[in-house]
Design brief:
It is a single chain. The chain is mainly β. The chain has three helices and 26 strands. The protein has two domains: 29-120, Sandwich (Immunoglobulin-like), CATH 2.60.40.2100; 125-394, no CATH class. The strands form seven sheets. Strands 12, 15, 19, 20, 21, 22 and 23 form a seven-stranded antiparallel sheet that branches. A five-stranded antiparallel sheet has the order 3-2-5-6-8, with no helix packed on it. Strand 13 (183-184) and strand 14 (187-188) form a beta hairpin.
């Protein structure tokens, strides 16, 4: 018996070493993935050397770990542990933003992937900041959208449409861990973006509502001081004071929380399907700014052809031509399983999201906003916001404390 007990620890040690060795072997398994990019036609071969300064961002959808590697001669090789990854390429060439992406790439062997790059220019009007997550307990009336003139010339808000992009989920499905039924090969099937909830636009005949260079306007769901609201048990204070908002989203829908403030101009409601006001889901949903090429938004909305049902359902959406987008943010839940594109790469080649207090969970009721980064300043000291048409690069990862009206750091 004594010999038996002496042997047991030895056997345990051997098994332990074997187990550790096996784990080490598993963790050591890595595969080389070669990323090659195809330059857009706007970038000539003579300018391709600029592309060598581009970066590939590699995102592990299981661990949320991210790494960056430079492109050299339009190629990069990265060694990865087994798993599923998103690859995003971003940079500048020939004075254009150049972006590309591939999502949901399984890496369980060495492989090569090719990413076709898309060239684009920066927008005149951009979202400087959007806040929709709300605070506990389920208070989201403090939402706002701040729009910035990112040029050195006067721009006009007249006729600019603001909307929430429909997720295109299958009938009777609420989980967002699936691609949009509106899209094929990451493009909208009929060349139009589907918008849902409340679709709003700025009024005006074309030159009534100027926005000065390097300045912003705030559009508030409810233009009051939300930081002063009376708190109930378990409520958390909002940090947002919107009493100085420039525009409001009042829709006269009989909800007590929908407050109309005299003296603040109201957006024009073009169409609505559900909800109290123009609000994405509190854990995130894509947003767009658009301007029609011809005609005015009110007449466009009155045309029956501007409405179409979600594929496989009888639920309607408001359709905007895909070539009318001024700015777009492909906002998704923080959960990597939900990282499907709903904005075409020409309008936003990346993804962005708000996280909870732990930095990884979904950011609903986190009190965080998504704020665009600062790229630099003009010689006069005015802020230039970052606009590479890639929200993965342009916005602060995970969100931050809302700063309505504050431009820059």
């Amino acid at each position: 018996m004594k010999k038996f007990f002496y042997i047991l620890p030895i056997i345990a040690m051997i098994l332990g070493f074997a187990s550790c060795s096996s784990n080490d072997d598993d963790e050591a398994v890595r595969y080389d993935v070669t990323v090659k990019v195809t330059l857009p036609s706007e970038v000539t071969q003579a300018e391709s050397a600029t592309a060598a300064q581009m970066t590939v961002t590699v995102f592990n959808t299981s661990t949320s770990q991210e790494s960056k590697v430079p492109l050299v001669d339009n190629t990069a090789t990265v060694s990865l542990a087994p798993g599923t990854y998103n690859f995003t390429v971003s940079g500048e060439a020939a004075g254009l933003n150049v972006n590309g992406f591939k999502t949901g790439i399984d890496v369980f062997a060495a492989k090569e992937i090719t990413i076709d790059l898309i060239a684009s220019v920066g927008s005149t009007l951009v979202f400087k900041e959007v806040y929709f997550s709300g605070v506990p307990e389920s208070y989201f009336q403090d939402a706002f959208y701040e729009i910035y003139n990112n040029t050195d010339e006067v721009q006009y808000l007249d006729g600019v449409i603001m909307g929430v992009v429909d997720l295109g989920l299958a009938p009777s499905t609420w989980n967002k861990d699936q691609p949009s039924g509106w899209m094929a090969d990451n493009k909208y099937i009929d060349g139009r973006y589907p918008l849902t909830s409340h679709i709003q636009c700025f009024p005006g005949n074309g030159t009534e509502y100027p926005i000065e260079p390097r300045t912003s306007v705030i559009v508030a769901a409810n233009p009051i001081d939300h930081s002063a609201r009376a708190l109930k048990e378990n409520d958390k204070k909002s940090s947002v004071n919107l009493s100085s908002a420039d525009w409001q989203l009042y829709t006269d829908n009989a909800f007590p929380a929908d407050t109309k403030i005299e003296g603040i101009p109201n957006m024009t409601l073009l169409w609505k399907s559900w909800g109290r006001e123009m609000m994405p889901a509190t854990e995130g949903q894509p947003l767009i700014l658009a301007r029609l090429k011809t005609g005015n938004p009110v007449d466009y909305a009155a045309d029956e052809s501007s409405i179409a049902p979600v594929p496989g359902t009888t639920t309607n959406c408001f359709m905007i031509p895909a070539d009318c987008i001024l700015d777009a943010i492909d906002i998704v839940p923080a959960d990597p399983a939900c990282h499907f594109k709903r904005i075409e790469a020409k309008d936003d080649a990346g993804l962005t999201w708000v996280t909870g207090a732990d930095g990884t969970s979904n950011g609903d009721y986190s009190g965080k906003s998504l704020r665009r980064k600062v790229a630099g300043k003009t010689p006069e000291g005015k802020i230039i916001l970052k606009d590479t048409n890639n929200s993965s690069n342009d916005f602060e990862t995970g969100g931050s404390i809302p700063t309505p009206g504050i431009i820059g750091d």
